[in-house]
Design goal:
two-stranded antiparallel ribbon; alpha/beta; single chain; D-tyrosyl-trna(Tyr) Deacylase, Chain: A; 150 residues
Length: 150
């Protein structure tokens, strides 16, 4: 499971001209799922993300987590995070899980984050063409791979 986490002052997801999710201060999480991912990846990654100390404290030092900030989150499924560009110029997405695997894991990840931050999170619409808008605060962007656990 790979995630791109962006600290935002605001973010939204639009599908077919309709805003389906929007948040203020918090995290925009782009989530890529591969066939080998399990509930262990969900648990590890969701804990890592909500506890990352990437929000500023009163001294402007990144010392606070999403939990500390009582921030919001949007989670967007992003199969292109598993793109391989090893051969040629057209990316291969062979590592990305098929919908029958990725949809349940995506939904479980959403539930895990909601349970941990004690609030609903925004989402995109799985498989839809989405317009994701954000104001990256900092900018702060972090990539995490649950297989590497770094």
């Amino acid at each position: 499971m790979k995630a791109v986490i962006q600290r935002v002052s605001e973010a939204s997801v639009t599908v077919n001209g309709v805003v389906v999710s929007e948040i203020g201060n918090g995290l925009l999480i782009l989530l890529g799922i591969e066939a080998e991912d399990t509930t262990d990846d969900i648990e590890w990654l969701s804990n890592k993300i909500i506890n990352l100390r990437i929000f500023n404290d009163e001294n402007e030092v990144m010392n606070k987590s999403l939990l500390d900030e009582d921030g919001e989150a949007i989670i967007v499924s992003q199969f292109t995070l598993h793109a391989s560009t090893k051969k040629g110029n057209r990316p291969s997405y062979m590592k990305a899980a098929k919908p029958e695997i990725s949809i349940p894991l995506y939904q479980q990840f959403i539930t895990a984050v909601e349970d941990k931050i004690h609030k609903k999170v925004g989402t995109g619409k799985f498989g839809a063409a989405m317009k994701v808008a954000l104001i990256n605060d900092g900018p702060v962007t972090i990539v995490i791979d649950s297989k590497k656990r770094e």
